[in-house]
């Protein structure tokens, strides 16, 4: 007797098994969902040490002895909130930096209201960021600071470092778009023909909900269906539910984006690609990338659909610094900050890079792009499978 | 005699009687009015500076006019002339109706021509293949002109805004519908591809036993279909069209709301924006001056 080509009996028994599992989950889920859940985000202790308009400067309480005499200032994007860097205990970029003995500051951009609609990139870079940097420099009696930018915040840091190189010791960029003329990222395609003037003139500020909808549309199958199927399959798992809710809280906590800033960012960056050509003007000054002479570490994600590698890689070849490094991780836009794999590697490596360049400048041997270093990085990659490093020179 | 008696009971006599009766009704009313004034002490003699109350003065004038008018109208000759004129009425009505019907027929003709154009356009645009695109073109070329008919009169600006909002809403609705249709396409296609894939697996005898695997195959196909769509120029065009339509509708909606808010003792967005801009510029100037210090 021959076997049937379709194993109906097996399929049916598996289906019955799944149905039973689903029933058990559904029975257990109310216990989890109705019980106490720890879903707080951004719980690492900090003080607000400086405030200007809606903007706050957070200073994190050190978790261990400070090992780096120069503080690190984190600059997040204007889209979504900086709470993503401190999403959950044990999986927090902020906590990891503190564990590495870094004296950490972070800008909280707050929630722009209609009165903030006229704020430009100049106001954010030469205003808020510069004032925060001055505050830290004065407090620590220093002349330079370490600066790290995330996504659009990274673009602001690039502009800041080009306009105020005398105040930046080291520059770290993560998932930072600087080259916008690429078809690899959907945002780059969509923004090209957008009538940004009409949208800004109508809305004043760009509503966070519209931005969020646009981000969901980047991958509807995963972000609007599969994600919630995953939730249903794990809703009896308290730990999973807590982390899921934390992520939901962060994703849908979207402040509006100040209109004039959005207008300039779309027009000068996405549509004219002026930044990478050193042609962008901010506050009446041309942003000349050759003035970025400090060491530069540039992280990005291989599978980032928002800021693809093509939007990040070219920067190091355009700046004036000789000490530059591109690091490509096998992850996406958010995975860099929240994936367990990256968490283990990402922050310690940045901390190490900073320590090397801050400890003793005399001993510091600025390495130009060389085969030797490239090999060393490859070796490191072999032992750390989560990382993939790429030298771009 | 008979004729005379008929004349006496004819319409002219009826009107004369009616006029007389009306005058007789208002005479006592006038008398009551005077009596009322007498009781309240407001007699013509009691009025200071030789002036009577305005209402009484108007009443007296109206009464005198009516009396004079009714006297003239009660004369049989006047009535006869009037009734002769009334005999002309059907002719006047007919002429008016003819003019009206001509206008109506012309309008109907134009409308039918328009409908004909619509049918012609519908065929040209190939509605079956691309209904939303066709409808947009039809709307923009054939219907939209009706929203552009010039508005007249005191409230023409408000009417224009209301009509513009209706027009923008129609455009927005069409754009959203087309955009939604595009977003649903990958769903349809993913099920088709899934069926093909499953047939292929069934033929090979490789159908998965785990039901979750089917879902995983489908979601992967769906993701792929979306990636194709989201990178297409058709999607980008539709997205931008929807965003523009939404902005335009939102803008005109705000204009209308602003008109209503203008009537209330609250500041409008425009007023607040002007104020915010002034504050912004002042703050910027102060910060610059502080840095220079």
> What gap, in angstroms, lies between the N and C termini of chain A?
66 Å
Order of helices and strands of chain B: HHHHHHHHHH
Separation of the first and last Cα atoms of chain B: 118 Å
Task: Classify the secondary structure makeup of chain B into a structural class.
Answer: mainly alpha
Helix vs. strand class of chain A: alpha/beta
Q: Which descriptor suits the 3D outline of chain A? A: globular
Order of helices and strands of chain A: HEEEHEHEHEHHHHHHEEEHEHHHE
Total number of beta strands of chain A: 11
Q: How many DSSP H or I helices of chain A? A: 14
Summarize the main sheet of chain A. Answer: 9 strands, mixed
Query: Spans of chain B with pLDDT under 50 lasting ≥5 residues?
Result: 1-7, 125-129
Structure annotation, total helices of chain B: 10
Helix content of chain A: 40-55%
Taking Cα atoms only, what radius of gyration of chain A do you get, to the nearest Å? 23 Å
Strand content of chain B: under 5%
Largest sheet of chain B: none
Radius of gyration of chain B: 39 Å
Helix content of chain B: over 70%
Please state the overall shape of chain B, judged from the principal axes of the Cα atoms.
elongated
Mean pLDDT of chain A: 89
Explain the overall architecture.
The complex is a heterodimer of chains A (393) and B (293). With 393 residues, chain A is α/β, with parallel strands linked by helices. Helices cover 44% and strands 14% of the residues of chain A. In chain A, the strands form two sheets. A nine-stranded mixed sheet of chain A has the order 1-2-4-3-5-6-9-10-11, with helices on both faces. In chain A, strands 7-8 form a two-stranded antiparallel sheet. The relative contact order of chain A is 0.13. By secondary structure, chain B is mainly α. Helices cover 83% and strands 0% of the residues of chain B. In chain B, helix 2 (11-39) runs antiparallel to helix 3 (54-74) and helix 5 (89-125) runs antiparallel to helix 6 (131-143). The relative contact order of chain B is 0.05. Residues 1-7 and 125-129 of chain B have low confidence and may be disordered. At the A-B interface, helix 1, helix 5, helix 6 and helix 8 of A face helix 7, helix 8, helix 9 and helix 10 of B.
